[in-house]
User: What shape does this take?
Amino acid sequence: MIIKSSEFITGAVEPKQFPKNDLPEIAFVGRSNVGKSSLINNLLNRRALARIGNTPGKTREINFFLINEAFRFVDLPGFGFAKVSKKEKARWRRYIESYLSSQRNIKAIVHVVDARHPGMENDLIMADYLNNTELLSCIVANKVDKLKQNEIAKSARKINDIFGKEPILYSTVKSRGKAELWTTLDRWLGI
Ligand SMILES: Nc1nc2c(ncn2[C@@H]2O[C@H](COP(=O)(O)OP(=O)(O)O)[C@@H](O)[C@H]2O)c(=O)[nH]1
Ligand SMILES: [Mg+2]
Assistant: This one.
């Protein structure tokens, strides 16, 4: 994919604020702080299109980005940060579901996990949720720059065992995994 343009469209807190449902979308999910915003920036060759490192758990909006005027990336709020209350978790779930169960043209979900902590409870809940829908998804194991070669292999094996999928090993710092993820996204988008 050659990125000709990318822009922030809107941050929505409820479905009526979503952009018109006229383009294919790829959504990004993952726990707070795994690097979803960094990943979106890295894929789009931008430094600060998606905000990085907000106070964990504070990003409450569903952020829409328009790319090449042809498709959108959707940054869903990070889930399961320890500091949030039960009530907030329930609200988070409603947000995510208001998007994922909407009849939008969702081509696939990129589930971002931290390569250092495979199989955390909230990731298992997310994977289980996705497996119970028709949605296609892949797992991106981010922050592999923080691991040694043998630890990366171990993490990949563990993710494969737990989720039944080979993860795409990623580092937004080193741009590792970018070409591989784009190959997957290109196939899903079919453009
Ligand atoms: N070492 C390392 N740090 C990363 C990587 N990706 C993101 N980060 C850092 O992780 C923190 C959270 O990133 P952010 O993109 O805001 O995560 P989000 O909450 O999932 O959107 C920031 O301090 C980033 O600089 C990576 O590949 N390697
Ligand atoms: Mg973010």
